[in-house]
Amino acid sequence: MLFNSIVGHSRQLNLIRNLVEERRFPRSSLFVGPEGVGKRTVAEELFSHLCGGSFNVRVLGVEKPVTVDEVREASAWLFTKPTSGSGKAVIIDRADEMRGEAANALLKTLEEPPDYAYLCLIGKSEEAVIPTIRSRCRTFRFSPLTDSSVSYLLEKMGLTADKRVVKLSRGSIGVALKLLETPVVDLIDELAALFKDKERLKKVVSFSEKFGKLSRDEALLFFDAFEAVVFEKGGTPRWEEAINKARYYLKFYGKPRSVMEWFLISVLGL
């Protein structure tokens, strides 16, 4: 049965199954929702089923947004009739991060796809996908997984379902796996203890030094996870602003240690 191994998203999967059974699944689709909840996994299984095997499915944009040259090459491949199977499909992840020239190169394929071809775009933000592309796709919205689903998937992979990791993942198995591979969760516990410590001023520098050993991606993961902790406990606009600025500085090449020192000064009023 289609999607038999997929965990969660029962409403979306039932809708997609019905469209497939009725031979009405759209040629162009947009899967949107939080990072790491299984959108690409669903797309890969769906189009492998529709196209007669995974060899007729290409996946782009997993590590970084697609370039205009990648879009043109994929479009040329898509317009070449399949030599086996029943169709072809191109899945483009990070579609909401595409640059304008790549998005524009995609428009022609979206407007006139071959009758054997499918194009699926995947992204976190529906609004970030340019309107001319969004209007040509049927949108399927995916929600965060439940905590029990994240725990189940971790255990299925042979991993310990740390309750802290499950909570901080905010319903994303992808985020949960990243958290397990980094010291982020322990650093969040340490920071929470620092806030309560009467001697915190003396410990700011040592904590910032430890934080400075994180990569930029790990530091961004830290602030995303820490945001969940803050707002679970009723965060204030000042905290929200500080977390957003910290992420902004990191994305534009601020050093993790410097960003953490700035963050602590801001929220602790040092």
The main sheet comes to:
5 strands, parallel
Oligomer: single chain
Got a strand count?
Answer: 5
Give the uncertain stretches in residue-range form: none
Q: Fraction of residues in helices?
A: 40-55%
Please identify which CATH superfamily of the largest domain we are dealing with.
Answer: P-loop containing nucleotide triphosphate hydrolases
Structure description:
This protein is an alpha/beta fold. The protein folds into 2 domains: about 10-140, Rossmann fold; about 180-270. Helices cover about 55% and strands about 10% of the residues. The protein has 13 helices and 5 strands. Helix 4 (about 100-110) links the parallel strand 3 (about 90) and strand 4 (about 115-125). Helix 7 (about 165-170) crosses helix 8 (about 175-180) and helix 9 packs across helix 11 (about 215-230).
What attributes does this structure have?
270 residues, alpha/beta, Rossmann fold, 2 domains, five-stranded parallel beta sheet, 13 helices, 54% helix, elongated
In short:
This protein has 270 residues and is α/β, with parallel strands linked by helices.
Write the layout of secondary structure elements.
Elements lengths: L9 H12 L6 E5 L6 H13 L5 E4 L7 H11 L9 E5 L7 H12 L5 E7 L7 H4 L3 E4 L5 H10 L6 H7 L3 H8 L3 H13 L3 H12 L4 H17 L4 H15 L4 H13 L2
Parallel strand pairs: 1-4, 1-5, 2-3, 3-4
Helix pairs in contact: 3-4, 7-8, 9-10, 9-11, 10-13, 11-12, 12-13
